[in-house]
Amino acid sequence: MAEENELQRLEDFVSTLLQKFNDLQDENKELTERLQRREATIETLQGDLASMKDERGDISTRVSNLIGKIEEWESSIDESDGESASEATDETSKDSGVQGKLFSADA
């Protein structure tokens, strides 16, 4: 009788271990799938980030080129319009920088 009780306890113990093992395998499978989804998301986001950095660089270059063209235009106006620039000194002294020259009444 005692041997049968011990055998029953052993069977219960093994059943519990097997159930826990199966539960852990299921949890491991779920976590592995979740990790794979997150890794895919990270790859997508890294690609988006790289593309946005490239786009930002392109935009920066284009803006720099536009500013350069505006500055060249302003300097060509200053050179060709030397007399009127000296007459308008009072008016342009109120404005400063590129925008002041670009948006002054004389321009």
Keywords:
107 residues, mainly alpha, 4 helices, 0% strand, rod-shaped
Q: What order do the helices and strands come in, and which of them pair?
A:
Layout: H1 2-80, H2 82-87, H3 89-94, H4 97-102
Q: What report would you give on this structure?
A:
The chain has 107 residues and is an all-alpha fold. The chain contains 4 helices and no strands. The chain has helices at 2-80, 82-87, 89-94, 97-102. The longest helix has 79 residues, at 2-80. The relative contact order is 0.05. The model has no long low-confidence stretch (mean pLDDT 84).
Task: Point out poorly predicted stretches.
Answer: none
Overall 3D geometry?
rod-shaped
Radius of gyration: 38 Å
Distance between the termini: 111 Å
Question: Mind describing the biggest β-sheet?
Answer: none
The number of helical runs is 4
β-strand amount: under 5%
Mean pLDDT: 84
Task: Please report the total strand number as a whole number.
Answer: 0
Overall structural class, as computed from helix and strand content, comes to mainly alpha
What is the ordering of alpha helices and beta strands? HHHH
Fraction of residues in H or I helices? over 70%
